[in-house]
Amino acid sequence: MKKILTIDGGGVRGMIPATVVRGLEEDLGKPCHEMFDMISGTSVGGILTLALASGISGYDCQKLIQKESPGIFQASTWRRMGFAFNQHTYKGDNLIKPMNKTFEEKWLATDLHAEILVPAYELETKTPRFFSRSRARKRGDSNFRIADVAAATASAPTYFPPHRAVSEAGNHYSYIDGGVFANNPSMSAYVEARNIWPDEKEFMLISLGTGQETIRIPNTESWGLWSWLSKGLLLSIVFDGVSDTTAYHVYNMIPLHHYYRLTKRVDIEMDDAAPETLARLRNVGMEIRATQEYKRVLEVLK
């Protein structure tokens, strides 16, 4: 049986799955990349995927989110109030600099300990892109610096500018957040796993969510384009809707005893990096670790 871990996108709410993964590693006594044959994630889930597959522990993933989120989601009052209409809320350097520091000069083809799948959307060709170790080992044009893949999958429209990345073959691409089409990458990861291991008969999939915003939506009848974009609601609806739809499909496609979904609703926006918010998110992760579903996951992974 091949075991797959998937992690949703969700900005700072990535602290939730990071806390759950730390629990799995501590409870089972081994690193994530030894528990799972494939790890897949989108946006912050993609960053966590690349970190875990690189050998970074769940505990260090927590520390990464705690340390870097305030800088990643730092913007001037001018930008936050929306006066810089033609600019993204946050600078691209806010994202790529910590990714460069975390992953240095590591590459997909040579520096990962497990198969991975990380989605992003390529703007110039208008096509979904699935970064994977297996493809990177076959084609130079599929091999990228891990730091570039991390920035590519997390460059959410309106929040960050598209990320420019150069493949090992020397081709240039422009990417935005994979959450626009696969915020929950479970279905894509399952298909990829079947392609990598075509003779395998059984697959187990553990899916970690980042919570879902439960913030009360105001009267939107008078809203125009500016209101939808400036309040971040449109992107939140897209990301949450994609995640829930994928979860529904996977739930009805994979046998119940081979599919586990760990998540919880929260009232936290994905760019709220205040210390007290990150502490709340850690607590949500701890609450998930106290559930019966988490305990069942521990049993099947032993």
Total strands: the figure is 8
Q: What's the helix count?
A: 14
Global mean pLDDT: 89
Structural class given helices, strands, pairing?
A: alpha/beta
Question: Per the principal axes of the C-alpha atoms, what is the gross shape?
Answer: globular
Intertermini distance: 13 Å
**Could you give a short account of the major beta sheet?**
8 strands, mixed
Radius of gyration: 18 Å
Helix content bin: 40-55%
Low-confidence stretches: none
Tell me the β content.
5-15%
Order of helices and strands: EHHEHHHHEEHHEEHHEHHEHH
What are the SSEs and their pairings?
Elements: E1 2-7, H1 15-28, H2 32-35, E2 38-41, H3 44-53, H4 58-72, H5 77-80, H6 92-103, E3 115-122, E4 127-132, H7 133-138, H8 146-154, E5 163-166, E6 172-177, H9 179-182, H10 186-196, E7 203-208, H11 225-230, H12 233-253, E8 259-262, H13 275-289, H14 292-301
Parallel strand pairs: 1-2, 1-7, 2-3, 7-8
Antiparallel strand pairs: 3-4, 3-6, 5-6
Helix pairs in contact: 1-4, 1-13, 3-8, 4-6, 6-8
